[in-house]
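Appendix B, Record 12. Input sequence as logged:
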Amino acid sequence: MRNYNFKVLIRKDNNGYFVASVPALPGCHTQAKTYEELLLRIKEAIELCLEVSEKDRDYKENLAYLHQPSFFGIEDVSIRA
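Logged structural output:
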């Protein structure tokens, strides 16, 4: 069995839910009311996406987990217009 590390983007939506997505795995996303539950759900979603990749060659070819960025950043940028 192989160990993978994925970057997960997490935000809180307008309804108060935490939403997570994995840019390296197309369609891999989930939501939850608590941060702790979100982490459990995104791990499950990642596992499911990896299972699909073993069975679906087209999906596997679209995966970017071997080339995912090592850094994501968010910055507030002010523009006067």
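The two ends are 54 Å apart (CA to CA).
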